[in-house]
Amino acid sequence: MAKFSWRKTVLVAAVVPLLALSACSSTGGKPADSGGGAGGGQVAATDRMKIALITHAAPGDTFWDIVRKGAEEAAAKDNVELLYTSDPEGGRQAQLIEQAVDQKVDGIAVTLAKPDALKDALKKAADAGIPIVSLNAGESVSAQLGAFTHFGSNEKLAGEAVGTKLNELGITHPVCVIQEQGHVGLEARCAGVKAKVPGSEILYVTGTDMTQVSSTVTAKLQASADVDAVIGLGAPYTLTILKAVASAGSSAKVASFDLNAELAQKIADGEVAFTVDQQPWLQGYGAVDSLWQNKRGGFTIGGGQPVLTGPAIIDQAAAGNALKFAESGIR
What is the spatial distance between Cα 270 and Cα 330, in angstroms, rounded to a whole number? Predict the structure, then answer.
């Protein structure tokens, strides 16, 4: 397995159920009698606070279930009311930020997939004195948009990690499939791949329509017999791509970014070569917990630098362990 270095943050969590709603308010348990932290299922004795988690999650993308599970667990420990909302369209995500400001939340955790669409809304939050952290997407513009830290993988570095692994496999003409054009993190992933494998191509698909994803990938493989690998940028898309490769009668290998239990099983079975995991549970947990720590003691986790949660290459040798955690909803 290839090894990469990243900043490590130790996080401690109590487990709570994940509420399967598109927008919700989670409520923690009863505060412990003393102490500023929580362990053994206890909740922090700090004052109740309200945090908004606002993502660009698209319906049906299981990645965000994992992010949210981490956030829910941190909220349960930290005596936080968590307000979760999402919208893949930048303008509507900005409206959700403005709604959180109007609700006078104590902190905002936000993904920055389309930062230009969010900058005015985030300025309103900063002007209102609301602490901001970013997660998952937008590392390069996080501080510029008012966040005191960012939790996520360096997407260019993650792409380069994939490119390095493809080189080890002898791949020369991979296709990197982007499911949301204009998403800065996805574009950076494919740019990182191309930096290591110059023969890489980008293929744009509509991620909200898996039938279109499948047909577009199939058509590309039928038209380009020299494509020797197809890379999906999220587990659900990669699983669809895997079927498209078989439908096209192609011998191209399939690789991925991100992880869920089904993808981990495909890697263990040798059907998918590998994935690069950005550990989304840590992103959700760290974002909420850092806002609590900031409120509690003025702490700014990361020292002004992003807290990296990846990349971590998971190939067949590592898939068994990853599958164990993926089946529990943590990876």
Answer: 22
Prior bond to 311 cis, omega within 30? yes
CA 86/CA 96 separation, integer angstroms: 8
Asked if residue 1 lies in contact with residue 163, where contact means CB atoms within 8 angstroms, the answer is: no
- Tell me the DSSP string of 139-150: GGGTTTTT-S-E
Bridge partners, 76 (sequence order) = none
Going edge to edge, which strands form the sheet with 132-135?
A: 24-26, 80-86, 49-55, 107-110, 132-135, 150-152, 307-308
Distance CA 54, CA 66 (A): 14
- Residues with Cβ within 8 Å of 235's Cβ and at least 6 positions away in sequence, in order, are 62, 63, 256, 258, 259, 260, 262, 263, 275
User: CA–CA separation, 17 vs 31, rounded Å?
Assistant: 18
Structure-block tokens of residue 282: 């840590």
* Residue predicted with more confidence, 67 or 31: 67
Residue 43 has which token pair? 């909740």
- 1 within 8 A of 315, measured Cβ to Cβ: yes
Question: In the predicted model, is pLDDT for residue 36 greater than 70?
Answer: no
pTM score, whole prediction: 0.77
Q: What is d(CA 188, CA 263) in angstroms, rounded to the nearest whole number? A: 22
Structural domains in the chain plus CATH codes: 24-153+280-309 (3.40.50.2300), 155-277 (3.40.50.2300)
Amino acid at 272: V
Q: Is the dihedral of CA 268, 211, 280, 309 positive or negative?
A: positive
β-partners of residue 262 are none
pLDDT tens by residue, 253-286: 999 999 898 999 999 999 999 999 999 999 999 9
pLDDT of residue 13: 31
* Residue 22 CB neighbours (<10 A): 10
